[in-house]
Write a sequence for this structure.
């Protein structure tokens, strides 16, 4: 019974925690610019993140190591510095994007410019982490995040053509704006396969004292939770295709996006959009700030844990404090949150091999996993998506910068 | 061998970037036109939704301000392109 409850809570976390600034912004921009044509990128990203989350949980349950801890031990501190810097930098940009997302939700609700909300949002994120425990942070944010299911309701209300959706489950060549198409594809994959998701999940498994008896629970949570989460992202893209693409509206600013739900659902649609954006980004900001602190503290062997009092894990607390402060300051400068989000997602895709390949080496090491090592299908799927995203990003990012 | 391949890839990348950078004036005008039309449609849709009571006045003002700013930017870019 308690395992069933774990699965149910894990599913809630997967569904409620999947959608954040990155997945929302990339899905809306892709749907507006290319209709249903980029559904495949969400599918590919979702498959990849399901495998990675499962691996992170399995590594924690079997070896009792968190990812950074195992990486430092297996490859040495010199090599570990590379994924440490890459993941910290990318996660920091994503954290700033999430703070920007909450600030924009507040701007939409009040009319006060988003940058003025950034200090208050950063303070709220920091206070919650400082004062509460891991369970409340993770489950509370994810439970509230279930509000994002409203995008599925809107997709039904808009009578999204399912045959067209199905026809785009596999990659196809763009009919126009090739550079933007591939840039959007890698941004979507980057948003789906954010390293913070599997690093955070792995740390959570350690905090919840998982052992090998949790491998089934882990598989169910990773597969179903990420699958449903990906389904919500597809619903967002489908709504954008129906509302924006059909009218020739391209998405240049966050202010346009609430129309996505206001058109099919009226005033409640607008309210629920603002709530979804605010809650999803706030939950993600909490998780990313914690993940940055986990990564640094676990990597350097410092005392860590959201359930540990800040004064008992002072360096761990200091890391998330600095990350939140800098993220808030970046948004306070008035940087365009939509551009920051999309660019962060493309950079995430670019950095995937650095974060994913060491994990794959660990997952195939009998010293850490024993008989629970990776199946070749998992290796092939994750390696294929990561390398593909990275190669396309190398070409698409400069093209997009020069082209725009 | 390895460095020759890297060199080849680098040349290909630079050529691709160059090609993207050399997009014709017509393409630039077309893109700016699309942006203006997109913002006009956004403003129209927002107004329709406000009249239906689907979005609050405060929000529609934000969108209309953003639309005015973006269209002004597009106009300035268009002038620069045509010069």
């Amino acid at each position: 019974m308690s395992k069933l409850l774990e699965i149910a809570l894990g599913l809630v976390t997967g569904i409620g925690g999947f959608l954040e600034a990155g997945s929302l912004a990339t899905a809306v921009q892709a749907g507006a610019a290319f209709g249903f044509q980029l559904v495949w990128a969400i599918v590919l990203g979702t498959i990849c993140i399901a495998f990675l989350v499962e691996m992170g949980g399995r590594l924690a349950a079997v070896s009792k190591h968190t990812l950074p801890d195992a990486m430092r031990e297996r490859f040495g501190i010199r090599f570990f510095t590379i994924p440490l810097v890459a993941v910290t930098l990318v996660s920091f940009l994503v954290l700033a994007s999430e703070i920007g997302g909450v600030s924009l939700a507040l701007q939409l609700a009040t009319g006060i410019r988003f940058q003025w909300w950034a200090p208050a949002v950063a303070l709220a994120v920091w206070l919650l982490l400082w004062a509460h425990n891991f369970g409340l942070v993770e489950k509370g944010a994810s439970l509230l995040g279930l509000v994002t299911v409203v995008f599925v309701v809107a997709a039904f209300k808009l009578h999204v053509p399912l045959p067209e959706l199905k026809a785009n489950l596999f990659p196809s060549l763009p009919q126009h704006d090739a550079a933007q198409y591939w840039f959007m594809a890698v941004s979507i994959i980057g948003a789906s396969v954010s390293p913070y998701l599997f690093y955070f999940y792995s740390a959570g498994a350690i905090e919840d004292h998982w052992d090998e008896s949790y491998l089934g629970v882990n598989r169910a949570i990773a597969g179903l939770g990420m699958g449903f989460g990906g389904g919500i992202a597809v619903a967002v893209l489908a709504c954008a295709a129906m509302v924006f693409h059909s009218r020739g509206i391209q998405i240049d600013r966050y202010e346009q996006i609430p129309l996505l739900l206001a058109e099919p659902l009226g005033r409640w649609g607008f309210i629920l959009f603002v709530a979804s954006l605010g809650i999803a980004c706030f939950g993600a900001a909490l998780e990313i700030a914690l993940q940055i602190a986990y990564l640094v503290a676990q990597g350097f062997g410092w005392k860590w844990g959201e359930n540990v009092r800040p004064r008992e894990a002072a360096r761990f607390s200091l890391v998330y404090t600095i990350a939140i402060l800098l993220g808030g300051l970046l948004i306070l400068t008035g940087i365009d949150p939509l551009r920051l989000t999309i660019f962060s997602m493309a950079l995430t895709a670019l950095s995937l091999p650095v974060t994913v390949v060491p994990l794959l080496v660990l997952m195939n090491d009998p010293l850490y996993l024993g008989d629970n090592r990776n199946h070749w299908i998992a290796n092939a799927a994750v390696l294929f998506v990561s390398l593909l995203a990275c190669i396309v990003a190398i070409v698409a990012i400069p093209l997009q910068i020069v082209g725009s | 061998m390895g460095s020759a391949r890297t060199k080849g890839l680098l040349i290909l990348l630079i050529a691709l970037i160059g090609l993207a950078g050399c997009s014709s004036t017509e393409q630039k005008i077309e893109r700016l036109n699309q942006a203006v039309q997109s913002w006009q449609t956004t403003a129209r849709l927002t107004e329709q939704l406000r009249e239906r009571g689907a979005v609050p006045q405060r929000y529609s003002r934000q969108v209309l301000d953003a639309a005015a700013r973006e269209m002004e930017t597009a106009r300035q870019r268009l002038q620069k392109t045509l010069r």
Q: What stands out?
A: Helices of chain B lie at 2-21, 25-52, 57-82.
